[in-house]
Amino acid sequence: MKRLVFVLLACVVSFSGTYAQVTATSTATINIANLLSITSNVDPTFNIDTEEEFATGETLTLPGALTVTSTADYDVTVATSGPDFTNGTDGIPVGNVTIDATNGGGTAVGAQPLSETPVNILEEASAGLSQDIDLTYVLAGGDHLLNVPDGAYVTTLTFTLSVD
After folding, report:
1. Phi, psi of 46 (to 5 degrees)
2. Total-model pTM
3. Domain of 74: which CATH number?
4. Which of 37, 103, 117, 137 is the most buried (most CB within 10 A)?
Protein backbone atom coordinates (compact mmCIF):
# COMPACT_ATOMS: atom_id res chain seq x y z
CA MET A 1 0.00 0.00 0.00
CA LYS A 2 2.83 2.33 0.81
CA ARG A 3 4.23 1.47 -2.55
CA LEU A 4 0.96 2.39 -4.28
CA VAL A 5 0.76 5.72 -2.48
CA PHE A 6 4.36 6.42 -3.40
CA VAL A 7 3.74 5.59 -7.09
CA LEU A 8 0.60 7.75 -7.16
CA LEU A 9 2.42 10.61 -5.43
CA ALA A 10 5.30 10.29 -7.92
CA CYS A 11 2.85 10.39 -10.84
CA VAL A 12 1.08 13.47 -9.50
CA VAL A 13 4.37 15.33 -8.95
CA SER A 14 5.81 14.41 -12.34
CA PHE A 15 2.63 15.28 -14.32
CA SER A 16 1.70 18.41 -12.40
CA GLY A 17 4.50 20.47 -14.06
CA THR A 18 3.53 19.59 -17.63
CA TYR A 19 1.10 21.93 -19.37
CA ALA A 20 -0.04 22.16 -22.93
CA GLN A 21 1.11 25.34 -24.74
CA VAL A 22 -0.36 27.06 -27.74
CA THR A 23 0.95 30.30 -29.26
CA ALA A 24 -0.41 32.85 -31.67
CA THR A 25 1.21 35.78 -33.44
CA SER A 26 -0.02 39.05 -34.82
CA THR A 27 1.61 41.87 -36.75
CA ALA A 28 1.71 45.31 -35.14
CA THR A 29 1.75 48.16 -37.64
CA ILE A 30 2.44 51.88 -37.40
CA ASN A 31 1.20 53.80 -40.45
CA ILE A 32 2.93 57.16 -40.82
CA ALA A 33 1.51 59.93 -42.97
CA ASN A 34 3.70 62.95 -43.59
CA LEU A 35 2.17 66.10 -42.18
CA LEU A 36 2.84 69.42 -43.87
CA SER A 37 1.12 72.64 -42.93
CA ILE A 38 2.00 76.30 -42.93
CA THR A 39 -0.13 79.10 -41.54
CA SER A 40 0.40 82.83 -41.93
CA ASN A 41 -0.62 84.43 -38.64
CA VAL A 42 -0.30 88.13 -39.47
CA ASP A 43 -0.60 90.52 -42.42
CA PRO A 44 2.38 92.88 -42.51
CA THR A 45 1.29 96.51 -42.81
CA PHE A 46 3.65 99.45 -43.24
CA ASN A 47 2.41 102.91 -42.28
CA ILE A 48 4.55 105.56 -43.98
CA ASP A 49 3.46 108.98 -42.78
CA THR A 50 6.52 110.85 -41.50
CA GLU A 51 9.43 112.49 -43.28
CA GLU A 52 11.82 110.08 -41.55
CA GLU A 53 9.86 107.03 -42.77
CA PHE A 54 9.83 108.35 -46.35
CA ALA A 55 13.60 108.90 -46.12
CA THR A 56 14.77 105.79 -44.22
CA GLY A 57 11.90 103.33 -44.53
CA GLU A 58 10.32 101.15 -41.87
CA THR A 59 11.06 97.80 -40.22
CA LEU A 60 8.36 95.37 -39.07
CA THR A 61 9.41 92.57 -36.72
CA LEU A 62 6.63 89.99 -36.45
CA PRO A 63 7.17 87.21 -33.88
CA GLY A 64 5.33 84.00 -34.75
CA ALA A 65 4.33 85.32 -38.17
CA LEU A 66 4.27 81.76 -39.56
CA THR A 67 3.49 78.44 -37.91
CA VAL A 68 4.86 75.30 -39.53
CA THR A 69 4.19 71.63 -38.89
CA SER A 70 6.30 69.20 -40.84
CA THR A 71 7.19 65.61 -40.09
CA ALA A 72 10.22 65.89 -42.39
CA ASP A 73 12.97 68.49 -42.77
CA TYR A 74 11.74 71.40 -44.88
CA ASP A 75 12.35 74.69 -46.71
CA VAL A 76 10.14 77.78 -46.85
CA THR A 77 9.83 80.14 -49.82
CA VAL A 78 7.80 83.29 -50.41
CA ALA A 79 6.53 84.88 -53.61
CA THR A 80 4.39 87.93 -54.32
CA SER A 81 1.34 88.00 -56.57
CA GLY A 82 3.01 90.43 -58.96
CA PRO A 83 5.96 92.75 -59.50
CA ASP A 84 4.40 95.64 -57.56
CA PHE A 85 2.42 96.56 -54.50
CA THR A 86 -0.56 98.04 -56.34
CA ASN A 87 -3.20 100.69 -55.76
CA GLY A 88 -5.30 100.76 -58.89
CA THR A 89 -2.89 101.44 -61.73
CA ASP A 90 -0.14 102.83 -59.46
CA GLY A 91 2.56 100.63 -58.01
CA ILE A 92 5.60 100.35 -55.76
CA PRO A 93 8.07 97.57 -56.79
CA VAL A 94 7.99 94.62 -54.36
CA GLY A 95 11.80 94.44 -54.43
CA ASN A 96 11.88 97.51 -52.16
CA VAL A 97 10.82 95.22 -49.30
CA THR A 98 13.09 92.54 -47.86
CA ILE A 99 12.02 89.61 -45.72
CA ASP A 100 14.12 87.70 -43.20
CA ALA A 101 13.04 84.53 -41.35
CA THR A 102 14.41 83.58 -37.94
CA ASN A 103 13.65 81.11 -35.17
CA GLY A 104 12.63 78.30 -37.51
CA GLY A 105 15.19 75.69 -36.56
CA GLY A 106 16.89 75.79 -39.94
CA THR A 107 19.36 77.88 -41.87
CA ALA A 108 18.13 81.43 -42.19
CA VAL A 109 19.00 82.66 -45.65
CA GLY A 110 19.18 86.30 -44.55
CA ALA A 111 17.22 89.26 -45.82
CA GLN A 112 15.85 88.59 -49.30
CA PRO A 113 14.05 91.10 -51.53
CA LEU A 114 10.46 90.15 -52.24
CA SER A 115 9.83 88.90 -55.76
CA GLU A 116 7.07 87.34 -57.78
CA THR A 117 9.55 84.48 -58.28
CA PRO A 118 9.74 82.32 -55.10
CA VAL A 119 12.75 83.10 -52.90
CA ASN A 120 14.06 80.89 -50.10
CA ILE A 121 13.71 82.39 -46.65
CA LEU A 122 14.44 79.27 -44.58
CA GLU A 123 16.42 76.18 -45.62
CA GLU A 124 16.93 72.75 -44.11
CA ALA A 125 14.71 73.39 -41.10
CA SER A 126 14.26 70.41 -38.80
CA ALA A 127 10.99 68.54 -38.66
CA GLY A 128 8.72 69.66 -35.84
CA LEU A 129 5.20 70.34 -34.73
CA SER A 130 3.72 73.85 -34.48
CA GLN A 131 7.04 75.65 -34.96
CA ASP A 132 6.76 79.44 -34.92
CA ILE A 133 8.84 81.38 -37.43
CA ASP A 134 9.54 85.05 -36.84
CA LEU A 135 9.63 87.34 -39.88
CA THR A 136 11.23 90.75 -40.27
CA TYR A 137 10.18 92.95 -43.17
CA VAL A 138 12.13 96.05 -44.15
CA LEU A 139 10.67 98.65 -46.51
CA ALA A 140 13.49 100.78 -47.88
CA GLY A 141 12.95 104.51 -47.80
CA GLY A 142 13.68 106.64 -50.83
CA ASP A 143 12.44 108.03 -54.09
CA HIS A 144 10.24 105.02 -54.89
CA LEU A 145 7.88 106.31 -52.15
CA LEU A 146 7.69 109.80 -53.68
CA ASN A 147 5.29 110.97 -56.37
CA VAL A 148 2.84 108.13 -55.77
CA PRO A 149 -0.77 108.82 -54.81
CA ASP A 150 -1.65 108.21 -51.19
CA GLY A 151 -3.55 105.04 -50.38
CA ALA A 152 -3.04 101.37 -49.63
CA TYR A 153 -0.65 99.50 -51.91
CA VAL A 154 -1.08 95.74 -51.65
CA THR A 155 0.29 92.43 -52.87
CA THR A 156 -0.43 88.87 -51.85
CA LEU A 157 2.37 86.91 -50.21
CA THR A 158 2.38 83.16 -50.86
CA PHE A 159 4.48 81.09 -48.46
CA THR A 160 5.34 77.58 -49.61
CA LEU A 161 6.55 74.75 -47.41
CA SER A 162 8.44 71.98 -49.20
CA VAL A 163 10.10 68.85 -47.90
CA ASP A 164 13.87 68.57 -48.35
Report:
1. -95, 135
2. 0.83
3. 2.60.40
4. 137
